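We include this case.
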Amino acid sequence: MSQDDAGELQTFHWMMDMLQSVDVGIVVLDRDYRIRIWNGFMESHSGRLPSMVRGKTLFELFPDINAAWFSQKAKPVFELKTRAFMTWEQRPYLFKFHNYRPITGSEPFMYQNITLAPLVSSTGNVDFISMMIYDMTDVATGKKQLEALQVWQTEEQERVSRV
């Protein structure tokens, strides 16, 4: 093995380690929505090992995900090689994971932003897409608390003005 090959192999291992330990869910799906990659974030929050999910469809494992809706979101990613986004404000979550901060967190589940991105092969085809799942629970909780405070303040101002 040449020194260049050894360096590339080392870089590959670092990248794989980083993908497993990053605090973002990473899932790679094929055109049949079969799971190919399932990183540590997903394992930790779902309780399912990569070996348990690999090769199964997203919809087999998570039947509460609407297959028609998700396919409609993923279609332009495969066909047009463009990204697609789902925000917690449109849909609170795709995967109903428990909030992992039950003592400090006031929400029972994790709010999520999702990015679907094409994985373009060397031939220019998109046979796989990546799904990145971001935990937005702290942001969602803060926004909900701010909105509740604004409602309370408005009601309090109305009450005071009536007196």
About this structure: The beta strands are 25-30, 35-38, 84-86, 112-120, 126-135.
